[in-house]
What we know:
Number of strands: 34
Amino acid sequence: NRTAARTDPxxxxxxxxxxxxxxxxxxxxxxxxxxxxxxxxxTMDQLSVRNGDANYTVRTSGSGNAGLGLGANxxxxxxxxxxxxxxxxxxSDAYYIQDSWDVTDRLNVSLGWRLDKMEVANPNGETFxxxxxxxxxxxxxxxxxxxxxxxxxxxxxxxxxLPIPSNTSFRMAAPALDVSEFFLAPTSGPLVDSNGQPILGxxxxxxxxxxxxxxxxxxxxxxxxxxxxxxxPGVAPAVEDTIAENLQSTYEDEYILGYSTQFNNEWSxxxxxxxxxxxxxxxxxxxxxxxxxxxxxxxxxxxxxxxTFSGSDVFRIINPGEDARIHxxxxxxxxxxxxxxxxxxxxxxPPVRREYLGLEFTVxxxxxxxxxxxxxxxxxxxxxxxxxxxxxxxxQVDPGITEDYDFLSFxxxxxGLLPNHRAHQLKVRGSYALxxxxxxxxxxxxxxxxxxxxVGAASAGYAPGPDLYDNTTLGTANPDPxxxxxPDYTDGQLTNDLxxxxxxxxxxxxxxxxxxxxFTTDWLYNVDLSFxxxxxxxxxxxxxxxxxxxxxxxxxxxxxxxANENGELAVGTPDPxxxxxxxxQTPRSVRIGFDWAF
Length: 598
């Protein structure tokens, strides 16, 4: 397999301790109180480098790349160097107390409180991110409707604080060297020589999006040449230059309401409604435009040092959709270096939304020595503008550092059905004793299709309009006051120049395509069978033996699981493979095994 980078080493260590105490007593009913603590230490050792010291990507300027001084349809190389790594330690502590209270012989109430504390460090051992007062209530109830324990209604509410991914520290706090240089590509003939090395033309220098290069043996223009887009200069950044001072942790709320009943001694069933909502997220965001907006609001000189940027200079971990208090590497003309950016007036990011609503029906037949069955059907909807720590739609496995808020051009169209949305899910599991020592089992699963939109080139001038939830309300936020000299950070051209096409913009042919609104994959049907044969004692003189036969995907279903969502190869150039299948169901396979217990 050809890969762009290698990670060596990549080691993760985890130590976990837990202690709790149970107390039972009676006071206006029976109580079972449990309190305790959890402690976890994590260490991640990771070093990532580009194979061959750098990666080369051939790009086309499309309608033009003003940031690099290129006209229309000019081919060029982006040479990207990325070296980063170190050892990253983290600690998590949780203190909790809960009371399971039998108020009456039919009503049970559960009351709980939890305090989470968590932090991660950079390779220098300095605390990079810390949350130490994350309080959560978790409560529930169960009521026996008829007093015979045959039927009950139950409910639950809980808040969950998500731990800080070690990858966040690796990406934001490591002494990373992440730099791109640009070279013209040949106008005709091959792009690589006989050794497979790119044929580099003149280097692109002294342009709007380029700046001084750091000193490194991995760069062609090492030193002060104005030829690089610098994401990280190769030294660990100051903690204050990476996260917002008012940063808060990520959390999600969950609500459950259900009913279950025992039909008879063998059959039971139930129905439950689950709602989950992401309340807040800690994520990195590009804030060049926000600082410029702040300067405009305060009447500062936009040409002065501290108020003008290349468009990818100010990245901080913030709570998107909320105000952010950040420290700047360079003071503003009025002397301010720590400022509070207003989300409504400066940052212009929509509130984070991720909601799941599911209605599940279940039925079970208890195993009686001959056969048993468990079945469930779930009708659900998962939608929002933020998938989570990972971005499966563009294949970004980068917890806590996704592309979602890197540019305003990524905002339109992001709200919609999420990649894990499956409106219908059916699961049936059963087992049957064919003989005393031979049991057959089966699993049937049915999933409705995954929904896709279209990912392409960002369209110039688009940014969220007044209604931040509405993908169709678009306009130009904070128009460029000096078009010739100060970059317009709402302009999608900058996104295309730096990230290429397609990146994470949900525009195709200049039109917003809402997430999950364009096409779907197949319905997925799958049947697995299993057989277990217990060998008689006459065969197994020592211990107990079982022969196993598993057949996966019995009918060799070949449904499309994933498809290509990239609709453009360059600005205005459709991808001919848009909507083409990229992954199918795993083909039929057979596994034979033998268990020997003694």
